[in-house]
What we know:
A: 332 residues; Rossmann fold; 2 domains; B: 276 residues; MetI-like fold; two-stranded antiparallel sheet; globular
Amino acid sequence: MGSIHLAKVTKSFGELTVIPSLDLVVEDGEFVVFVGPSGCGKSTLLRLIAGLEDVSSGQILIDGADVTRNAPAQRGLAMVFQSYALYPHMSVYKNIAFPLRMAGIDRTVIDAKVRGAAKALNLTDYLDRRPGQLSGGQRQRVAIGRAIVREPEAFLFDEPLSNLDAALRVAMRLEISELHHQLKTTMIYVTHDQVEAMTMADKIVVLNRGRIEQVGSPLDLYRKPRNRFVAGFIGSPKMNLIDGAEAARHGAAAIGVRPEHLALSLDGGVWKGTVRVSEHLGSDTFLHVDVEGVGVLTVRAGGEFPVHYGDHVWLTPAPDKLHRFNEHGEAL
Amino acid sequence: MARAVTTRRKALLTVIGWTVGFLVFFPILWTVLTSFKTEGEAIANPPSFLAFDWTTENYTEVQHRSDYFLHMMNSVVISFGSTALGLLFAVPAAWAMAFAPGKRTKDILMWMLSTKMMPAVGVLVPLYILFRDSGLLDTRVGLVGVLTLIDLPLIVWMLYTYFREIPGEILEAARMDGASLGKEIVFVLAPMAVPGIASTTLLNIILSWNEAFWTLNLTTSNAAPLTAFIASYSSPEGLFWAKLSAASTLAIAPILVLGWFSQRQLVRGLTFGAVK
């Protein structure tokens, strides 16, 4: 069991309030991703759950038990850090064994658990090496191994993939998702990368300036963003947001339309524009089109679309995929 | 032709390096040579470099006139004692400043350093009176106390600089892994900080060993370390260069050996923070 409940949690550093009152429930076995721009308080929130920072007020409950004043180790949580935070003077074996040694577990049990985790993470050949002799991906796996052997109530990941190169990041993303399916343990994962959030999460928590903007499944957030912030943050490339007369025509202060919901034509449509930049990826073509009175819109065309700088194109938004926002940025 | 220039520059730098090294070393070499001369040869003009009658009579004389081993033991007790006591205070202080800094941490560090800017003689009289009244004059305990306080700012600064290089996340990981503060220090911080603590210790032992102002002013005979032993050969009856040199050689020999074997640690200690 590993449900986590935050009740009216706040955090201030001196005068500065990083997290105003916040409530959140993470169900047992869920994969929850905290996502938001840098400085939005997502890492602070994770550290509050871990116990590495003290809450200024409010309660943190794990499986219904109040752990607000408990030390990190007493919360039954394991954390994987962005910098891996391996012990550089210990071998891979000793790194993975460390939490078990601290818990005073029998040596033979430790040995079996460490070797089991190493096998699962393809680290068996590296058990005698020091962290400095490993690649970034291997180090990250050691950090995960160190977390797994504790059999925690929940795993906390603090931007674990941001130090890896792009290809490795995709591979590790899959490994972590697979791990979640195997272990079925609660996982809280912090990232600023909305693609990671969309691909891994059961539930996404979008944070902005310490406040929760929206909580929901990846597709909920994609289909029904509650406000402009979520609309702009979730989805890649970003949603086109249009203010002014064009928005007023739809009875809103602003309208939003995703690049994949704009139909592209050379013959006719709603908006006429000039191609500024065209990005040909083979599988997709992304066009940045300057539409007079509307602004520069990003358009996604499936497959190859043979237009270039200066060409004129017509864009038509799918009417049922149009998002409307009021003057406060809230969805209508 | 870039390569040729580089080689020539390298050769030039090597020559400069050796010259400076020799200049720095020369007084020590001269002291050692003089210690093997007779008093007459020691003050001869022009001086002889190697062609003189080598004699060890100065060493016999020095050992005969004063108890070298008493002074050496005093030096050992004072330098090792003050360093150990200093570390006992400095490790927790540097730990707190590096990993749990407050608003005033930087100010405290600067204030500690500022005490080193005051000339020692400025507090000689009050400290002398304090020592006299509390019966600490010419005691090892008194000197250990004074040298600990004198060196503490430097030890704290060095350890602070070193601890700052250790990523806080590693200590947090240890905390998550169930390590108590004690275990965190023993199993994680200490092994990672060993090079820093070792070089701080070595440097401080050398500084305390060579400290002459307080050791000369607060001792007479019982607690007098080797610095006082050397100074005793500069007597009102005149300077006995050869014996003074023999005494100096005897005084610096132990610390020279220690320094020689620990030079790698020392260089690392003095440059940490500067190079990653």
